[in-house]
């Protein structure tokens, strides 16, 4: 339900001049005069946002007249406005016990606060009672019907997700080092989970970026981001690239803005963050763009816009970074994600496969709920799943980010223990709505002969599906960082024109702890005798038929040959020393020939290819260990001529 349609506290509690005469026992005209005066005082205090003072006045009125139902109703409404839903329910029920007929008009807010504490069956019963009132106007009936559908959704969701019932949701305030007496929101967490960047509202309405570093499990005192990023205008809704080098955010009322709020980018330098640059008309319009989220390979930028041509008020869009570094025209994510309502605050996880966002148009608990969608094998997004109660509630859930570990979530909320306004909280995400735990590999690509860093392409491919998970460019000096979602086996390929590609294999089908990899990669120029090990060529034991998981690597060889039409290569097969030497020679020859046969089947001329089996005659490791034998069983590519 949008905020414009929320039922005002004061309309419910103070502006209903008429009361029911359907046989109720309570008569507001016969209330003790002193109690009535205190009730009026409490009303004035509440209208001035002095909720605590108002409650004290109303409690005094009740002490004078313990059957003063309007005072109980007022206290309940004020507690509801303070989001103290248990107290709101308590006082509504005290009021109902005095006169249930008089109470009937208040069954709608009562139902809302019952839902606020997760009592959805009772909430549904209460709103059903509210809708029996024959004199309801259309606005009230529409509000009741909407809440009825929300409570039914909650009951249906609980019935279809029984395992969720054991989930303990206890968000922890991140403490005084991060939260202050003003609002903090839009957290962005680093890949290692030890740096937090967030938006803070300062000096009334200005928004700036702050950061905190965690050392030994303790967050340090947050400070303003260094450099030229914070201004007297509003900066917010930021994301930081996984390598920590880019900060993309929503900037409002900038001199070079195309609309009131545009998306900007800043780069980390030795002097801090650079002066922000507008990301251009492929992304920004004269309308409103906000809440950017950058994929871990820096190839896709998701964001929210209310530009015309969408499915509702605001939709989620994506722009792709092209090979020339420019950004493609933004594309709407389509009707699977976007609705006639509002979608916003997209967050693409480090696994590059899991998207979180909020929506007022998808079925949910009320207002703005959080959802998760997962990328399908064909690259489309799957049907969004509501994150469920108690992550989603009757209140507005604005945004959610999840650390690379796949289980630690961060969000902003104004819970009872807030330091002031919105605070940042953390909590463990329920298992069935988690993304993949994500590790990473980083290092530097350089020329093997000169040691000079080489800008290169770094590609991560799912060996089972051959789907490219990430495809990124190193920086200008060859540095790279790429994320590795657990649960799959990957081919890791680094390539640059004029060089032999490099390949590695990461087998992450099973939990590998918290290992992060550092691999510096020397690329060999394309010249005679240059040799690489093809680490993603797989055969069954003692057989020479290529396994399907080999296709991704073999296709890289095909592309190498097509990019260099005069290149000639030899495929060399090697085994460990298990078995008879003659059998090993035969096996290695057949395996090498299987590779060249594949290449020919993909259009590479046979005269450019040769193969040789070496058996166990050229070991590169100790055959006395399992690891050594695995290294010796290998397929190599050697350049014959360029």
Stretches with pLDDT under 50, minimum 5 residues: 1-22
What would you give as the CATH superfamily of the largest domain? TolB, C-terminal domain
Count of distinct strands: 34
Largest sheet: 5 strands, antiparallel
**Integer average pLDDT:** 90
* Content-based structural category: alpha+beta
Number of helices: 12
What's the overall geometry?
elongated
Helix content: 10-25%
CATH C-level class of the largest domain is Mainly Beta
Q: Would you tell me which CATH topology of the largest domain applies?
A: Neuraminidase
Radius of gyration: 31 Å
Question: Into how many domains do the coordinates divide?
Answer: 4
Oligomeric state of the chains present here: single chain
Distance between the termini: 66 Å
CATH architecture of the largest domain: 6 Propeller
Task: Assess the beta-strand content as a share of residues.
Answer: 25-35%
């Amino acid at each position: 339900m949008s905020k414009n349609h929320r039922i005002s506290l004061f309309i419910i509690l103070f502006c209903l001049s008429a009361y029911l005469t359907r046989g109720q026992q309570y008569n507001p005209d016969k209330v003790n005069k002193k109690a009535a005066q205190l009730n009026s005082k409490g009303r004035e205090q509440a209208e001035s946002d002095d909720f605590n003072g108002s409650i004290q006045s109303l409690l005094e009125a009740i002490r004078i007249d313990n059957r003063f139902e309007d005072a109980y109703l007022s206290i309940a409404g004020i507690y509801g406005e303070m989001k103290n839903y248990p107290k709101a329910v308590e006082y509504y029920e005290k009021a109902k016990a005095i006169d249930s007929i008089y109470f009937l008009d208040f069954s709608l807010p009562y139902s809302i606060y019952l839902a606020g504490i997760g009592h959805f069956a009772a909430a549904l019963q209460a709103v059903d009672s509210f809708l029996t009132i024959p004199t309801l106007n259309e606005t009230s009936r529409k509000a009741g019907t909407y809440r009825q559908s929300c409570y039914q959704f909650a009951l249906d969701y609980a019935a279809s997700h029984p395992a969720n019932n054991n989930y303990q949701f206890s968000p922890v305030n991140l403490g005084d080092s991060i939260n202050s007496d003003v609002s903090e929101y839009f957290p962005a967490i680093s890949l290692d989970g030890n740096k937090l960047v967030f938006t803070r509202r300062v000096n009334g309405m200005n928004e700036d970026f702050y950061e905190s570093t965690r050392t030994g499990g303790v967050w340090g005192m947050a400070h303003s981001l260094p450099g030229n990023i914070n201004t007297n205008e509003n900066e917010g809704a930021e994301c930081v690239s996984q390598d920590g080098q880019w900060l993309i955010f929503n900037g409002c009322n900038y001199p070079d803005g195309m609309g009131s709020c545009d998306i900007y980018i800043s780069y980390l330098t030795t002097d801090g963050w650079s002066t922000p640059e507008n990301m251009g008309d492929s992304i920004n319009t004269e309308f409103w763009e906000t809440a950017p989220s950058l994929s871990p390979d820096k190839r896709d930028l998701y964001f929210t816009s209310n530009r015309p041509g969408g499915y509702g008020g605001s939709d989620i869009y994506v722009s792709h970074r092209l090979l020339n570094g420019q950004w493609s025209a933004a594309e709407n994510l389509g009707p699977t994600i976007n609705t006639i309502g509002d979608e916003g605050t997209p967050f693409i996880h480090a696994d590059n496969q899991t998207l979180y966002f909020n929506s007022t148009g998808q079925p949910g608990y009320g207002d703005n709920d959080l959802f998760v969608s997962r990328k399908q094998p064909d690259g489309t997004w799957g049907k969004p799943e509501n994150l469920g109660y108690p992550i989603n509630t009757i209140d507005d859930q604005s945004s959610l980010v999840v650390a690379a570990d796949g289980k630690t979530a961060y969000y902003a909320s104004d819970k009872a223990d807030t330091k002031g306004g919105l605070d940042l909280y953390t909590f463990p995400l329920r298992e069935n709505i988690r993304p993949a735990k994500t590790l990473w590999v980083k290092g530097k690509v350089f020329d093997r002969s000169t040691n000079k860093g080489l800008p290169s392409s770094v590609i991560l491919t799912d060996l089972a599906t051959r789907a490219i998970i990430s495809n990124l460019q190193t920086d200008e000096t060859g540095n790279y960082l790429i994320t590795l979602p657990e649960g799959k086996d990957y081919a890791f390929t680094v390539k640059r024109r004029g060089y032999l590609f490099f390949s590695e294999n990461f087998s992450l089908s099973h939990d590998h702890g918290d290992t992060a990899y550092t691999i510096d990669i020397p690329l060999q120029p394309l010249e005679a005798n240059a040799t690489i090990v093809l680490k993603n060529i797989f055969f069954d034991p003692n057989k020479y038929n290529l396994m399907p998981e080999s296709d991704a690597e073999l296709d890289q060889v095909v592309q190498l040959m097509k990019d260099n039409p005069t290149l000639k290569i030899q495929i060399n097969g090697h085994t460990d020393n298990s078995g008879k030497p003659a059998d090993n020679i035969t096996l290695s020859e057949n395996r090498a020939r299987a590779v060249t046969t594949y290449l020919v089947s993909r259009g590479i001329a046979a005269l450019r290819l040769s193969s040789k089996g070496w058996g166990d005659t050229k070991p590169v490791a100790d055959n006395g260990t399992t690891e050594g034998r695995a290294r010796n069983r290998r397929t190599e590519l050697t350049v014959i001529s360029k």
